Amino acid sequence: MKHFFSNSRYAEVRLFLLLVTGSLAILFNHFYHVTYNDLSQWKGGGMGMFATQDAPGTRVVSIMLETPEQSFIAKNQALGRSLAHFNAMPTADNLLSLCRFASNKVWLPSGTVRTVTLNDQTLRSYAIAGLSGDKTSSHQPLTVTDVELVAWKTLLDVPTGTLTRTPLGSAHWNSAEGCRVKS
């Protein structure tokens, strides 16, 4: 075996084995991401270059803030990079990180209301909360007791022409227990 690695006659064989091993590592890495991280299957071409994740725009995160007085919907734009990172790779670890990030922010009421459709198809209006950098926020911070994050992926079922929601997970924070992810 020592002769195989030190002899220059076997240089081409070593290079071939290195290329095969590298290609297999890339292939298995791709299959791992297809299985666990929502990457689409390989569509031909070189080394999976035509494989993509579902568009991050199809992923939605709803953030509810509870105070002793009322419930608020948090402005998603306020979470910036953390939210973009979760949308790009919606894993339980990234959802937990997003939950921790949201729970450490100082939220302020924005003075506006949004009406949303709940899962049971009923309509409900919620006040909106933003961060201190938002121009529409007031200057009185909210006393947030609970933060609830719910994430899902919206897909169009082409044969039926309907939109479907696939849950990606949820996370909850309160001051007693911290953040925890529910799958």
Secondary structure tally, helices: 4
Task: List segments where confidence is low: pLDDT < 50 over at least 5 consecutive residues.
Answer: none
- Percent of residues in helices: 25-40%
Tally of individual domains: 2
Distance between the amino and carboxyl termini: 49 Å
Gyration radius (Cα, Å) is 23 Å
Could you say which overall geometry the principal axes of the C-alpha atoms support?
Answer: elongated
Note the beta-strand portion.
Answer: 25-35%
Based on secondary structure, the structural category is alpha+beta
Throw out a few tags for this protein.
single chain, 183 residues, alpha+beta, 2 domains, seven-stranded mixed β-sheet, 28% helix
Can you offer a commentary on this structure?
The chain is of the alpha+beta class. It folds into two domains: 1-53, no CATH class; 56-182, no CATH class. 28% of the residues lie in helices and 34% in strands. The chain contains four helices and seven strands; from the N terminus they run H-H-E-E-H-H-E-E-E-E-E. It has helices spanning 2-6, 11-36, 80-88, 92-103; strands at residues 59-66, 71-74, 107-117, 123-131, 146-157, 162-174, 178-182. A seven-stranded mixed beta sheet has the order 3-4-2-1-5-6-7. The protein is elongated, with a radius of gyration of 23 Å. It starts with a helix and ends with a strand. The mean pLDDT is 79.
